[in-house]
Amino acid sequence: MPVIRYRLDWLLPTARLRWFRVILFVSLAAFAQEETSYHPLGQQRQVTSSFGYRSNPLSRSAEAQFHKGIDLAAQVGDSVYAWRVGMVLYTGSNKVSGKMVNLLHTGGFISKYHHLEKILVKEGELVEAGQLIALAGQTGQVSGPHLHFSILKNNEHLDPLPFLKEAQNVSRQLPRAPSRTAATSRRGEFSYKEITLRSLPVEGDVYLDEEYYGKTPLTIKLAYGEHFVEIDAGAEYRRFIGRLWIDERSSGDYTAQLLPAENQ
Questions:
Q1: Could you tell me which of 90, 109, 104, 107 has the C-alpha nearest to residue 153?
Q2: pTM
């Protein structure tokens, strides 16, 4: 079976190399959909700041500065998706970029997602193209909520816009495989439990593992394991997102408390 080999020495800071030297072996069969790409916000959004030299709105200097990515219009809590299949190379935060996620892809590509509200993946985790990885926000040095998105190839920044013009929308009706963390019985069969999902103070659309299931209150059988829950009650309320673990000890009721949009 063909194998792609990546050495990450040139991708990691010197301090990190003291802890480990990483060689990533990725099977081509496991990542057959590598060229499939998705918009990081699920669908085309307005570009509020382009790639290249610009006047930095947060700088007192009149001198143009190079913008290494593009800024995409977003609201706090909007879902952020993996551009392509890959591995979580870095998660963290700093004063400028806020909370961020960097993904390593085959072909020498890296994608970066900055100013996040919440990070939903961990370093070393393998992610699928179009997988939910974070929530957009306004952390770091920003003038308002947005997603800064950048693409590198062989450590060189590229204009992401041509890539996004070819990217697919994330369809909530897209069938998803069972959760990789789903628990099984000794016979290898999935175990299920009936759960009732509710939302307060109003009902909302329920998405489980990015697939639409209906409105709250909703009673459904879920496989043992971890599930992502999203509840959308419209523009007046902030989108709810959480992780739900199902096993023999978990409660049969799950209630999401929705926050008013003005509290974002």
A1: 109
A2: 0.59
Cβ-proximal residues to 152 (8 Å cutoff; 6+ apart), any chain: 109, 110, 111, 112, 158
Q: Tokens standing for 252?
A: 């049969």
Question: How far is 264 from 247, CA to CA, in rounded Å?
Answer: 32
CB 99 within 8 Å of CB 142: no
The residue ranking higher by pLDDT, 54 or 260, is: 260
Pick the CATH number of 33-165 from 3.10.20.30, 1.10.472.80, 2.70.70.10, 3.40.50.300: 2.70.70.10
State whether CATH 2.40.40.20 applies to domain 192-263: no
Q: Spell out the SS3 assignment of 10-50.
A: HHCCHHHHCCCCCEEEEECCCCCCCCCCECCCCCCCCEEEC
Task: For residue 260, say if its preceding peptide bond is cis, omega within 30 degrees of 0.
Answer: no
- Of 35-49, 134-148, 218-232, minimum mean pLDDT range: 218-232
**Is 50 a residue whose pLDDT tops 70?**
yes
- State mean pLDDT over 54-66: 68
Residue 28 pLDDT exceeds 60: no
Q: 46 φ, ψ to 5°?
A: -65, 135
Binning pLDDT at 50, 70 and 90, where does residue 109 land?
Answer: very high
Tokens standing for residue 11: 């991708």
